[in-house]
Amino acid sequence: MGGGMANRLLGAGFPLTVYNRNPDKAKPLAAAGAKVATSPKAAATGADIIFSMVADDNAARAVWLGENGALAGAKPGAILVECSTITTDWIKELGAAAKKINCELLDAPVTGTKPHAAAGELSFLVGGSAEALEKVRPALAVMSKTIFHVGPAGSGALVKLLNNVLCAVQAVSFAEALALIEKSGLNRDQTLEILTQGTPGSPLVKTMAARMTTHDYEPKFLMRLMAKDIGYAHAAGKQHGVDFKTAASALEVFKIALAQNLGERDFSAIVEPLRKQ
User: Fold this and answer.
1) What is the pLDDT of residues 90-123, one digit of tens each?
2) Are 113 and 221 in contact (CB under 8 A)?
3) Do 164 and 267 reside in the same domain of the chain?
4) φ/ψ bin of 86: left (φ > 0), alpha (ψ from -120 to 50), beta (otherwise)
5) What pLDDT digit, counting tens, does each position of 32-49 carry?
6) What is the pLDDT of residue 56?
7) pTM value?
8) Is 151 exposed, middle or buried (0-12, 13-18, 19+ CB in 10 A)?
9) Pick from 11, 82, 90: which is nearest to 51 by CA?
10) Residues 85 and 173 in one domain
11) Same structural domain for residues 116 and 11?
12) Residue 195 to residue 100: CA distance in whole angstroms
């Protein structure tokens, strides 16, 4: 995701310095004109806008904090844009740390997959001040088809978790239905046509049907990352007095898939453990 986003910025003429924990992953960006830094601090030094796109809270802390973290290199007045799918607690912590060095934070996670990132067709879910958003809008625009300002800091992170947990619950529900279709002897193609063309046929269900029936699990969104997001969403629900029972049930199915070494496959592979039951 980060690579596709970076290429869009380079293609639009933005000067760009990048950092990746795996230096080999930065080589294509270097070939496209980006400078490659040896630490988050070096990447952030002198930048007006600092983007982060990593896997989870722990990875984000490693990128932003510490003597070699991006905050150590950020100049006063820089705008931090955290695009990772993370917890609202971490956004609060990062926002407080940014304020101490006179920087402003936007949490701006995205919806979309790697192809959307490469094509500049992401949707940004932005939490933070409208003023900061307007300053970074030109950069966001070249990476996106839509920019939603969803509220104060932390709002973007929460909306993204809701988006992903609804996707996960639909995927598990459809996987269970498909397993039953296959084991019961129903005409699979006919039954799937009824379900996907009828009221249950959301865009995600149609995508799951195509991937699960062809066993196409080339990663568009990793199983382990979706499991992480379900856990984050479930925790956020508890903080607000909402018991996400469907999220908890979906997470149990995802844990089974992870135990079967499916974590690096697309999350549509969630059907495979159900087929084996």
Assistant:
1) 999 999 999 999 999 999 999 998 899 999 999 9
2) yes
3) yes
4) beta
5) 999 999 999 999 999 999
6) 97
7) 0.95
8) middle
9) 82
10) no
11) yes
12) 53
